[in-house]
Amino acid sequence: MMRTLLVVALMLLPLSASATNSKPELAKVLEDLLAWLPGEYTSIPQVYLERALGTPPDGEHEIYYRVFAEIEAPHLAKHVIYTQIRLDGDDGTIFPGQQQVFLISIDEEKSVVSIEGRRIKDPENYVDAHMHPEMWSTIAPDPDFGGNCLFNWRRHGQQLRGLLGDHGQCTMVSKRSGNQLTWDAEWILNPDQLWIYDNGTLADGTLFSGREDRTHLRLSKAERYECFTSLRFEDGTTQVINPYFMHNRGDTLTITTTEAEPRDLHVEFLTSLWPSNSGRNYVDLMRLTLHDGEVGDYKDEDVLGFAWAEPSSNRVGFTTEWASSRCKLANPDGPRFKAAMMGQ
């Protein structure tokens, strides 16, 4: 009887996280985090599906374009990732307060990979810092923000899961307002997506950041493609745009035609789940579309050219009687690609 009671008592004790996170496992978590997190992400595929299949209770999610890039900043930590958010797209305005550095290390005592996220000081001087190594040595945390809550990462099946503190919540006092704030956050990461749930409440429970429906923002990792478009008009003239670069997660190029009566045409490039109402064709497709409708909201009758491919093909294109367009996965080391990314 005593032995049975002892077994039951042990079952009721809280389980230690260290029981399933050995040093080799934590080293692999760190390795995967540094391999999976860097990249360009956007929520356009999520918003596309919400518009096609229905929105969650709080409405459609915001369109964010977020970059994570590992940088060399040994004055901050051994492993540092710079991140920033732009609103609406990769050429949108910077989201204030979201230029941060992630200081990453293994915490053997807690058996986690720990991230300390810090806003950077004088952020206006560090826009697109991930593309400017000359900036890295002077990046510094803003002493007026952050440093209160650590993000703790562990293996979660075939994914990585980050929680604030030990159980996903952290309560702190703002260094600026003096208000008590509670953050409730969970990040889920795999090689292709980052799902973010991040709510902030005041001491009285008022939600000041995040969503009441507690749904995740689903960020999909984007890849850059080298593209061209060729148009032949009724008067016999032609127009060629070659090359230009697009990401594959909802990027758009607007072309003002050179014909006698100019018009705006749009090339849209989107890799996402196909919004099948039946569910039988709910699969990832890469789609390239030329249309003269509204950006992001065109109708079937607006389509002038269309092609689809499996994402693994790394290329897609179409040819009609008067228009053709192609996109292929870009070479990140190519001089034209580097010049385009630097805005030259």
Helix share of residues? 10-25%
User: How do the strands line up in the largest sheet?
Assistant: 1-2-3-4-5-6-7-9-10-12
Can you tell me the overall shape? globular
Rg from Cα: 24 Å
Q: What letter string, H or E per element, gives the SSE order?
A: HHEHEEEEEEEEEEEEEEEEEEEH
Q: Quote the distance from N terminus to C terminus.
A: 78 Å
How would you characterize the largest beta sheet?
A: 10 strands, antiparallel, barrel
User: Quick one: how many beta strands?
Assistant: 20
Give the helix/strand class.
mainly beta
- The stretches of 5 or more residues where confidence is low (pLDDT under 50) are 1-19
| Average pLDDT reading | 90
Taken as a percent bin, the fraction of beta residues is: 35-45%
What's the tally of helices? 4
Structure, explained:
With 344 residues, the protein is mainly beta. 12% of the residues lie in helices and 43% in strands. It contains 4 helices and 20 strands. It has helices spanning 2-12, 23-36, 44-53, 335-341; strands at residues 39-42, 64-71, 79-87, 100-107, 112-119, 150-156, 159-164, 169-173, 180-189, 193-202, 207-209, 217-222, 224-232, 238-247, 249-256, 264-273, 284-291, 303-309, 315-319, 323-329. A 10-stranded antiparallel beta barrel has the order 1-2-3-4-5-6-7-9-10-12. The radius of gyration is 24 Å and the shape is globular. The model is unreliable at 1-19 (pLDDT under 50).
